[in-house]
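Slide 14.
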Amino acid sequence: MDRKILIVDDEAHIRMLIEQTLEDLEDDGVEFLTAENGEVAIEIIQEERPQLVFLDVMMPKMNGMEVCRRVKKELGMENIFIVLLTAKGQETDRQKGLDMGADLYMTKPFDPEVLLEQAKQVLGID
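Slide 15: predicted structure.
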């Protein structure tokens, strides 16, 4: 089975950090895709159908909330697990993210262990 994770963040070092955190999953055949903004993310999601998307909320062109809404509500891709990553940890933001269809909401700086465990769980890796 093709397992794909899409990492979306406008900051290259954060994309790299997430990829490094999850790199052990490559041994399980997981492929990593990256996007630097929401518009590119939508294109990749439609073409590649990743199982899991780590999505930054605050980005140029199209923010994470909007990407999430489009993927879940407009494109009807309910089976894609979306984790919103944000520096803003307020409850109202979290609720808005979940309302947009996000499956999980994590605040930065995130715990690498938690991120890895979440990825394993979504992809069904022991």
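Speaker note: Residues 3-110 form a domain with the Rossmann fold fold (CATH 3.40.50.2300).
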